[in-house]
């Protein structure tokens, strides 16, 4: 299916009835059938030709036995950072190794990528510690808040109790005054 711009939609094949996924090339299948059972003899012949000095056969053998490495191993001594404060020293070691020619700039970039990953790890650890500290403080705050509510409730209850006692005393005194204030009535 094509879009308005004439391009195929993403994740949609331009030829739905085309080659199935995972199918193999006919030429590869034919070559495998022809070499079936004879691969060992062919390898021996190539090795014989290489021993006789034929350069193409020798190159073919060496390419299979010792492939060209894509990366080389690096011997570089610098302290592995145990925390974020020690990372700058490691970056500095990599930079000085590049400047001295002990490693290539590409190798230095790869090492800096590893150090960057480690820096992010230290950052996540730091964030996790800070979040834990905040959660601990929030818990302490909630405990203090509950204790304060309980204390305020006790104070409020004590005030109400004290006010209740004075209310019960006040009406009896007021009633006694009303009895004495109203003369002429029989008691």
Describe the structure.
67% of the residues lie in helices and 0% in strands. It contains five helices and no strands. The protein has helices at residues 26-35, 39-51, 55-65, 87-100, 105-181. Helix 2 crosses helix 3 (55-65) and helix 4 runs antiparallel to helix 5. The longest helix has 77 residues, at 105-181.
Write the layout of secondary structure elements.
Blueprint: H1 26-35, H2 39-51, H3 55-65, H4 87-100, H5 105-181
Helix pairs in contact: 2-3, 4-5
Task: Give a nutshell description of this structure.
This protein is mostly helical and 187 residues long. It has helices spanning 26-35, 39-51, 55-65, 87-100, 105-181.
Give the helices and strands as they follow along the chain. Answer: HHHHH
What's the total count of β strands? Answer: 0
Radius of gyration: 45 Å
> Largest sheet at a glance?
none
Key structural traits:
187 residues
């Amino acid at each position: 299916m094509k879009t308005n711009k004439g391009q195929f939609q993403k994740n949609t094949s331009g030829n739905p009835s085309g080659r199935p996924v995972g199918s193999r090339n006919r030429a590869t299948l034919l070559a495998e059938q022809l070499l079936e059972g004879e691969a060992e003899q062919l390898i021996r012949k190539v090795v014989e030709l290489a021993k006789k000095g034929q350069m193409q056969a020798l190159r073919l053998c060496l390419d299979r036995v010792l492939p060209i490495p894509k990366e080389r191993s690096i011997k570089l001594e610098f302290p592995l950072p145990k925390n974020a404060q020690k990372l700058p020293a490691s970056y500095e070691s990599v930079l000085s190794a590049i400047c001295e020619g002990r490693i290539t700039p590409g190798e230095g970039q790869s090492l800096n990528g590893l150090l960057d990953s480690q820096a992010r790890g230290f950052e996540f650890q730091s964030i996790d510690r800070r979040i834990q500290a905040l959660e601990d403080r929030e818990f302490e705050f909630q405990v203090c808040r509950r204790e304060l509510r309980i204390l305020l409730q006790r104070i409020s209850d004590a005030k109400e109790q004290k006010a209740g006692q004075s209310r019960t005393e006040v009406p009896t005194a007021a009633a006694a005054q009303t009895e004495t204030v109203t003369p002429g009535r029989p008691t």
